[in-house]
Design a protein that fits this description.
three-stranded antiparallel sheet, alpha+beta, six-stranded mixed sheet, 27% strand
Length: 209
């Protein structure tokens, strides 16, 4: 019997399947704003999810593995990482863990941290990066599908030629069993910290000068 694919392998499998779907449907757009282009890509991923028989949830809540710590910055107090975050999409399957999806125009986002933690939990993780140069390293267990675009100026509009089956996919390293076990242990510690925080009296809001 063939072994079940690991989360790492599933991330690559799903990135390849999504690329094939976008190629078969001749996905493209012309003259869209940044928000419109992101929505167009999001709809395309949701259509692929539906065609695969999965349920799609937008802005799906997720929790970072490492518990937040109260930091100070000038006259403000803030939690880092934040107590909660949201995935652009979570694709729920009947026969496996949900797939985490982030869609970004640049590397300057929290996608790396969110997908890293989802992969450490053993969940397939897809990062769809469109436009701009790729600078950020792909986290372990994550597959990145790059969809470059052209842009105009004044006003800025983005265009994307039909996706081909050669669109770039970059894979992170494998998540080792040791890294996953350590992460799951930290995840349990975070849950315990959340329970303790919920039981404490409410603290006043951030100090403002």
């Amino acid at each position: 019997m063939a072994p079940e694919p690991t989360a790492n392998g599933e991330s690559e499998i799903f990135a390849t399947a999504l690329r094939a779907h976008l190629s078969e449907t001749r996905f493209a757009f012309t003259g869209l704003t940044g928000k419109e282009a992101t929505r167009s890509i999001t709809r395309a991923v949701a259509e692929w999810s539906m065609a695969s028989g999965w349920r799609t949830r937008c802005e799906a809540p997720m929790r970072y593995i490492d518990p937040p710590r109260l930091q100070t910055g000038g006259c403000r107090g803030y939690w880092s990482p934040p107590w909660c975050a949201y995935l652009d999409l979570r694709l729920r399957r009947k026969d496996g863990p949900p797939i985490a999806v982030e869609i970004d125009r640049s590397d300057d986002s929290t996608a790396v941290d969110k997908l890293r933690d989802e992969a450490l939990r053993g969940r397939p993780a897809l990062w769809i990066r469109w436009h701009g140069a790729l600078r950020a390293e792909v986290p372990a267990g994550v597959a990145r599908l790059h969809l470059p675009t052209r842009s105009s100026t004044s006003p800025v509009r983005y265009s994307r030629a039909p996706v081909t089956d050669t669109a770039s996919i970059t894979l992170g390293a494998d998540v080792t069993p040791e890294a996953r076990a350590e992460a799951l242990n930290r995840d349990q510690q975070r849950k315990a910290e959340e329970k303790r925080a919920a039981a404490r009296p409410q603290a006043p809001g951030p100090i403002r000068c």
